[in-house]
Write a structure and sequence with these properties.
The chain is an alpha/beta fold. The protein folds into three domains: 3-65 and 206-422, 7-stranded beta/alpha barrel (Alpha-Beta Barrel); 66-202, no CATH class; 439-539, no CATH class. Helix content is 50%, strand content 10%. It contains 22 helices and ten strands. Strand 1 (3-12), helix 1 (29-46) and strand 2 form a beta-alpha-beta unit. Helix 6 (123-137) crosses helix 7 (147-160). The two termini are 40 Å apart.
Length: 548
């Protein structure tokens, strides 16, 4: 009898938003996704004990979650300064107190929510959003606005960014939502306490899922670098832009594994190479570091074995023990980009039907595996209830299906699934099976040049620094090597893209300062031209991050 194994792998990933020198957070997306998506994803899986999933984390995200939880705990117990300005506004006795520009910034921050599922869903918040939009267009009347408006706005903003499981179960949150308006300082401190509790429990929640056998925990290299930029030949598209060499790849892997073990108290079996970017040198390096599996796109597999590729198989490249799983692009993208527009039960039914169709075409007694792999945070605000009904229904349907084995990568390797040899591997990523996305315009290529210049500059002075300073420089260099910074430049001139542009250049400037060097003046020039001529002061206003 044939058998179809299905792996759901959720990739949890945020770049570094913390300033390397001050420790302040320049953007709030780590903690906002924390109290919404990272909480929900763990709780929903736990609600279906028969279901199983893989969660892949970037260590730089885990470190930020830990830092947020510590900072909030210190604030609530001994009054330590909150290092995220948006959280500090929630905790302030009078939010919105200060200059007109600070008031405008707070309004902008608190309007960044999904129109359908966060704004229109809550009439009290919707009224505040409409008033806030009016004030942004008529700033001259801000002087007449009372502090109660800012108090209610910042409170509601955090209420709508809470996970659906939190709003369903937390009595303090239910009380605040029912209250609807007129929030005082104590109300906001109560909400801050909820946020602190949620952030404190995120990493332990995933650890518990792993201990109970419901989750496999995996990792990406420390700050999410495109590994082929460091491991491939000098004539490859990425390596010709950045001479990071294998030493930098090894740093990300070693540091990443160290931080993963710190947070989860165990070694990861598998690794999602950032952006699914693989090549034979990359795979061999992951094998050297003791990983049992990695994953990429089925497009990469088809390019490597165009005549007889089977995307439902496991492949082992030559000269190593590491196995490669290949993401089913169609099914993964349906969850990521299409099913949000469907009713949840119909989306679940459609996905199950597609899997049944794959099963029906398997040869007699065949064993196959389907990999569904995507971001674990970015899609859900586009779903009703932050994806709760869809995910809960999907876990139930797949775990109860008599022809489907909902499993993990590690257990698939321990089962009787056949592993096929892979004689060649065409370098590629999850985006169209190539790396064009990260160097397809002049702005992106210039970003790589800025990084290369910074790496050369700090490498020249590194031997003269003490060991503590060396570690800080190397970690900040790793932050600047993350793949996110090369995705957006030149794509468009929207404020979120300009914001990531400014953050990348800010991180590079901090790298120079940590090494005792003066940043070059060209870091003051945006990579992406702004249509309004707005400077970095406006660009750094916290806006919704661009969606991947």
């Amino acid at each position: 009898m044939s058998e179809l194994k299905v792996v759901l792998c959720w990739h949890m990933h945020q770049p570094q938003y913390r300033d390397a020198i001050s420790g302040d957070y320049l953007l709030p997306w780590t903690y906002l996704h924390g109290i919404k998506d990272y909480c929900d994803m763990a709780t929903i899986l736990a609600e279906v004990p028969e279901a199983r999933a893989v969660f892949n984390f970037t260590p730089v995200l885990l470190d930020q979650l830990e830092d947020y939880a510590h900072n909030l705990r210190q604030h609530l117990t001994i009054g330590a300064r909150l290092r995220d300005p948006l959280l500090a506004s929630l905790a302030a006795p009078e939010p919105g107190d200060g200059t007109t520009n600070r008031q405008l910034e707070l309004i902008r921050q608190c309007l960044n929510a999904n129109e359908t599922h966060q704004i229109d869903r809550f009439p009290s918040y919707r009224s505040l959003v409409h008033a806030g939009r009016f004030l942004l267009q008529h700033r001259d009347i801000l002087r007449y606005v009372e502090h109660s408006f800012f108090s209610d706005l910042v409170t509601w903003y955090h209420l709508v960014w809470l996970g659906e499981t939190v709003r369903k179960s937390n009595p303090r949150v239910k009380k605040l939502i029912d209250q609807g308006q007129g929030y005082n300082h104590q109300d906001r401190l109560d909400l801050l306490g909820v946020i602190g509790d949620l952030l404190q429990d995120i990493i332990p929640a995933y650890r518990r899922l792993a201990e109970h056998g419901q989750a496999e925990l995996a990792m990406s290299p420390y700050a999410h670098p495109l590994l082929p930029a460091f491991t491939d030949r000098a004539d490859s598209p990425l390596a010709s832009l950045y001479n990071g060499n294998g030493e930098r790849a090894r740093w990300h892997l070693a540091r990443g594994r160290e931080r993963f073990q710190h947070h989860f108290h165990g070694k990861p079996v598998g690794c999602w190479p950032p952006e699914g970017g693989i090549s034979l040198p990359t795979v061999h390096l992951l094998d050297e570091y003791g990983f049992s599996w990695c994953a990429s796109s089925d497009v990469v597999l088809h390019q490597s074995l165009p005549d007889h590729a089977n995307p439902q198989a496991i492949y082992r490249p030559e000269h190593g023990q590491l196995c490669c799983f290949f993401r089913n692009t169609e099914l993964s993208d349906l969850i990521g980009f299409e099913y949000a527009r469907w009713r949840s039960h119909l989306a679940v039914r459609d996905l199950v039907h597609r899997l049944e169709r794959i099963y029906s075409h398997l040869p007699e007694d065949a064993i196959a595996i389907v990999t569904i792999l995507m971001d674990g945070e970015n899609a859900w605000e586009h779903y009703a209830e932050n994806g709760y009904s869809f995910l809960h229904g999907l876990y139930q349907a797949l775990s109860a299906h008599h022809h489907i084995d909902l499993t993990t990568f590690a257990d698939a390797l321990d089962s009787s699934v056949p592993i096929h040899p892979l004689a060649q591997l065409t370098p590629g990523s999850w985006v169209y099976g190539n790396f064009d996305k990260w160097h397809n315009n002049e702005a992106k290529r210039h970003a790589w040049q800025l990084l290369e210049s910074a790496r050369c500059a700090v490498s020249g002075v590194l031997p003269d620094l003490d060991s503590d300073c060396q570690q800080k420089v190397l970690e900040q260099l790793a932050v600047c090597e993350g793949s996110d910074w090369f995705w957006w430049p030149g794509e468009d001139s929207s404020l979120p893209v300009l914001q990531f542009d400014a953050l990348f250049r800010h991180h590079l400037s901090s790298l120079y300062h940590l090494a005792g060097l003066s940043p070059p003046l060209e870091l003051e020039q945006p990579l992406t031209e702004s249509p309004t001529g707005s400077g970095d002061a406006q660009v750094m206003i916290r806006q919704t991050p661009p969606k991947r």
